[in-house]
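S1.2 Input.
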Amino acid sequence: MTTDVQPIQSRLQPPSYLDVYLRVLSALMLRDMRSRFGGNYWGYLVQVLWPCAHLAILVGAMTFRGLKSPMGDDTMVFIATGALPALTFQYISREVMKGYMIHKPLTYFPQVKRFDTVVARILVEIVSSFMGVCLVCAVLLCFGSDPVPVDIFTSITGYLTAIALGIGVGTINVGICSVFPGWAIGYILVTITLYLTSGVYFMACYMPEEIYYYMRWNPITQLIEWVRLGYDPTLPVQIDYLYLFGWVFGSLTIGLLMERFVVRAQQ
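S1.3 Output.
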């Protein structure tokens, strides 16, 4: 009797907190992926394919206007090194906020906390960004371009910093949206402005010094230059690493404090 009762008791034991938390995260991530563009998993590929479409549009525009790459001879690599870090920051910082708003009704279930929706969307966006990078590299190889930087460590750390900054700003956006939902629309205008002035399709370091000084206050500009420095170490860029790390850790700290004292206060 003892040997028969013990397996039954083990099966009747409630799952641990970690098991419940991981199940909640996996369910939120699967729901997140399926809710994109058409309500199925195939729609999730649209977001992964978008960097390639974006690259094709910018390269086509530069080719049509007869513009040459100011960094090396490969226009596709030049555009990719600017667009990928900028889009990565833009997508993560915006989608984390959207994920919180979309999954907000699920927080009525006691197992789902509002911060869980943020963590699930962050994980999905990180995976999506790396899939996008791999796909863009594959496309570049197919067109005869070399996507491998001269200094791989420099480019990778610059790209990872763009991801970290997107997470930090995204958590701040969650705190703002919990009080003012209209910020979701206003932030789109902010990201468009940052994107157009960050140096995706031009070299900020070749601008006049008076203009370059003010452009360097935009952290996205320095992130793009950081990634491009791995492809051309001779670029006359001025990267303030302390300033960028201050943005990353400062935004993440403010975002977590807002989640603790602002977002939770709305529950």
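S1.4 Remarks. The chain has a mean pLDDT of 83.
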